[in-house]
């Protein structure tokens, strides 16, 4: 960013100030798969990373590039690479940066599909230790001489545990370990992992950033804080030029280009438009979430409320210190006498659906769906009961949401 403008101003004017053709205010949707050059030397220079430009859009296109620039600005980062989905970003980045013999420490409270990806890599021989990352001591005692990465989420889904983000950042900096933070649940509007020394930030753009449930996308941002010169897994071909670029180049080449989880230009356009109102939507939906959490806490048919905004949440003070707001993820556990399916079916407004970070409020029974593959025993270990419901709070009028829940709770 050249000037220090506010979050929303920066997003709204990002495309225009890059001067797209015809004075367009939005970066146009460039659908061309390949790009032609009059002089073959120019094509060769793009291939060899000597100039920036486009060759084949699996590894980059102008519309997606404009979105990457926006995410970089939102995250106060150095550079970003977009992917077809959040999962493509996470899976491809690990593929790009980790080698046989490496060890990763990951939070045991992970998005289910991220956990599943780690399991696949473990089945191929990667050593991963899962720890309760709400306390840095657990991360530190799991470290090994070959630990290359610590991976955590900001607010975990569905039980809203908050990793010891700041202390883990200091630990990773001191030990020169890659620190990768999935910022999806907070979004760069509520929190920048760069502020706690994260090396890499993952965002599912499908969720609050795109925000309207109409496009899939993911993004990996290099914060510029990690010294890639000391990282043993950079291939010689990418050890060229500015050392700050080595990591993101390897993610683009070995992650995006080789695994091919490329974002479509149409999706980049939808997500860019959605992101323009991220701040407005987050202010509204986090206020709705706080109001609902307070309402649920006082309701006799609700046994437990999981929301970092509540003072009795185990990491409430951490959330208050680090985040601009407490997020849109809110889980509840009904009392045993309430039937979870009957309650959900009684909701008229709240949609029964997976996904998170939509403009609409969504609800899902956790044990039967997103954590079903885990089995009853593992769920019990994680404190997930059969009566737990995950909510993603939207931007509806607050009183309508409360009325809908009130009616269903009886
Ligand atoms: C949804 C989600 C992902 C995956 O994103 P997709 O775009 O659905 O692939 C990763 N991490 C978290 C925390 C998520 O909520």
From TrEMBL:
Domain of life: Bacteria
Cellular component annotations (GO), alphabetically ordered: cytoplasm
One Pfam family, short name: Cys_Met_Meta_PP
Molecular-function GO terms, alphabetical: cysteine synthase activity; lyase activity; O-acetylhomoserine aminocarboxypropyltransferase activity; pyridoxal phosphate binding
Annotated transmembrane regions: 77-98
Family: Belongs to the trans-sulfuration enzymes family.
GO biological process: cysteine biosynthetic process from serine; L-homocysteine biosynthetic process; transsulfuration
Organism: Mucilaginibacter auburnensis
List of residues that carry N6-(pyridoxal phosphate)lysine: 207
UniProt keywords, alphabetically: Lyase, Membrane, Pyridoxal phosphate, Transferase, Transmembrane, Transmembrane helix
Protein name as annotated: O-acetylhomoserine (Thiol)-lyase
């Amino acid at each position: 960013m050249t000037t220090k403008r506010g979050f929303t101003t920066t997003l709204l004017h990002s495309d225009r100030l890059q001067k797209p053709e015809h004075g367009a205010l939005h970066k146009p949707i460039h659908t061309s798969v390949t790009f032609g050059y009059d002089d073959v030397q120019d094509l060769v220079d793009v291939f060899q990373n000597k100039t920036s430009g486009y060759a084949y859009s699996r590894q980059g296109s102008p519309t997606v590039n404009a979105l990457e620039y926006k995410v970089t600005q939102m995250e106060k980062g150095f550079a970003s690479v977009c992917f077809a989905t959040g999962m493509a970003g996470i899976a491809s980045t690990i593929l790009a940066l980790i080698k046989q013999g490496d060890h990763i420490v990951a939070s045991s409270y992970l998005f289910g599909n991220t956990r599943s990806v780690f399991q696949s890599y473990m089945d191929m021989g990667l050593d991963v230790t899962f720890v309760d990352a709400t306390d840095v001591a657990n991360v530190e005692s799991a470290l090994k001489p070959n630990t290359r990465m610590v991976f955590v989420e900001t607010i975990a889904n569905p039980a809203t545990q908050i990793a010891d983000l700041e202390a883990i950042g200091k630990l990773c900096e001191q030990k020169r370990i890659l620190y990768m933070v999935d910022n999806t649940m907070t979004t760069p509007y509520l929190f920048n992992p760069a502020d706690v020394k994260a090396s890499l930030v993952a965002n599912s753009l499908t969720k609050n950033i795109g925000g309207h449930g109409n496009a899939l996308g993911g993004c990996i941002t290099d914060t510029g804080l990690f010294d890639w010169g000391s990282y043993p897994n950079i291939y010689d071909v990418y050890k060229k030029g500015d050392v700050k670029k080595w990591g993101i180049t390897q993610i683009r080449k070995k992650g995006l280009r080789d695994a091919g989880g490329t974002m479509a230009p149409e999706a980049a356009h939808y997500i860019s438009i959605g992101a323009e109102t991220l701040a407005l939507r987050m202010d509204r939906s986090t206020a709705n979430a706080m109001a609902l959490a307070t309402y649920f806490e006082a309701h006799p048919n609700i046994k437990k409320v999981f929301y970092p905004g509540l003072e009795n949440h185990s990491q409430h003070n951490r959330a208050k210190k680090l985040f601009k707001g407490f997020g849109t993820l809110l889980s509840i556990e009904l009392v045993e006498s309430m039937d979870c399916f009957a309650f959900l079916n009684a909701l008229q407004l709240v949609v029964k659906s997976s996904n998170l970070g939509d403009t609409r409020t969504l609800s899902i029974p956790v044990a039967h769906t997103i954590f079903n593959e885990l089995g009853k025993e593992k769920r019990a270990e994680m404190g997930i009961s059969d009566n737990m419901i995950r909510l993603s709070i939207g931007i509806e009028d607050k009183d309508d949401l409360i009325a809908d829940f009130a009616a269903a709770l009886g």
